[in-house]
């Protein structure tokens, strides 16, 4: 079953940074840029990687450092087909995202998110809407817009119905539908 | 002296002067030269579409035939610029549709283009000849259909690396049967299958076609048919270059290729299989440019192929070529000018191929004309960089990406300061530099001291303190573009070098330590700079002023702040409050 309490997850997150500077939880960037600047006389640089002080700074798989290494998306996506499953896990999963009524399509890397709460927050931020409350029986309540996706079989499903791992491996594209259109989706009552 | 030299004569003289820099100089000689020059300038380059407004361009240059515009910052290529940031071309197209009925060429890079704009282009410019959309997005194949259907004199349609909403391949059939003027077509970024007959007929009826870059859906079996229709091709981008080896397909292809005696450039090669590579051998002796960066071909086959290409000037390849392949390249291709080696598997920590600093050392030693390099690898040493610098002082573009951030010299475990220092010291004509690996402020001291001709610098995960940034801003006299991510640079260097920013096109800083307060100050002090804060956490004034901003983009502009910003971008304006109009 899909876990859904997005607010709970946020409360348990550890972060570095000044009070009031809640880091966007989309990107696990190197936090050691916030350290005291080293003196330029330091001749024994630490050859280690990033400091691992909190959960957000756990050694990121490379896919989690946005935009690094600087290889353009269309080059990365070229090799999806060739990779074994294990390798595919390390690279991005880019899907197009559309919203009814919005003029432009967007693109997102699903690999960047750890679960539905983060994904939905990102969609809300990107398209400026609120997703409403999800419940298994009735889908999304209290929102004009509903996040849906097309899976590998070409079926349109409600985002959140299947476990996260299954979702990211089967999602072809995302579409934020008008609530009225989405009524047929989701769990049959 | 004031009594004149006839204007027509001056205009005729000016017509021989094409470079923007020279044209700009001419226009500053005196008022009458300014006037004459502006009426006869035909080609405009706008490096940052927000540096000037369409209205200002049109007012000054009333009769432009060719325009080039660039939109998003370079780091947008790596998903660092959030979607919706800007770079919309629509206002430009609308303005030019009315002002420049004789416009012939539009070249755009990293801009958002809509189908409406494409339709407007198709309707408004009767003599339209060239549309180049490089790394653009926001449009679909419907827009392309409008161009195909209406632009009778179109010569060039180039969609390189754009993100197109590919609704269907049917758009290609909108070129009327009477249309025969195609010279260059690059549709390599499209995903949909097109009607092969339509493609074949188009190619067959355009006798001036010199450059054809197909997309992946064109199968290798059909390539020969196209080539026989266009033996005059100079540049070819194949489609998918794989199939089971069938002798008749192979010999058909090899035969067709051998008929293309003018062919100088090859690209495409998606899913390439080694068995079909020899089909190109007959044209290799004349080849100057080869892009194999989508081909997962191992080094023995690459070595064999390259041994047939003595005139090669440009090679783009994956790191499957390995050190041994680069050594062979250095031996076979003495005319090599540009090399790009891309990572086949950028996201694993352990090397999957045997490509190290040695490959770059070999090529820089063996290829005397090599001046431009983009190289991804996993290890580097100061010794290697110094050797490279001494071997090849003629580098103009040196971009090295050591895949793991902050990787030290693998021999000494120290920073790579000295190595990059050698590069900037020896390569006196260096115009573009990207650094990586473990670097302290000392590296930037070298760059500031020696890189006097440097125009573009890219930094990531480097430096110790503001001193590093200060060295660069105060030392690099010709710096135009600076892009920085994940470096510990903050307010001091930026504010101390505020005036420098007006001499540059733009500065990008993301995941650094520049505070909101400093951004506001900069915006107040420098009215001719647009200081834009990009922050997806919400309005910056809901956080303390000392809080670092997520991303910062500063650029000089005579157009003032822009008004098309999305909700996560704020302009720091002179009236000391963050200005944003939605």
Describe the sheet with the most strands of chain B.
Answer: 22 strands, mixed
CATH architectural category of the domain at 1-41 in chain B: Up-down Bundle
Instruction: Give the oligomeric state of the chains in this entry, treating copies of one chain as homo and distinct chains as hetero.
Output: heterodimer
Overall number of strands of chain A: 7
Question: What profile does the largest beta sheet of chain A have?
Answer: 5 strands, mixed
- Find the CATH superfamily of the domain at 94-181 in chain A: Phosphatidylinositol 3-kinase Catalytic Subunit, Chain A, domain 1
The low-pLDDT segments of chain A are: 1-8, 17-63, 80-90
**What is the correct CATH architecture of the domain at 94-181 in chain A?**
Roll
Unreliable segments of chain B (pLDDT under 50, ≥5 consecutive)?
Answer: none
By DSSP, the count of extended strands of chain B is 24
Helical residue percent of chain A? 10-25%
If you compute it from the alpha carbons, what radius of gyration of chain A comes out, rounded to the nearest whole angstrom? 19 Å
Overall, the morphology of chain A is: globular
Mean pLDDT of chain A: 65
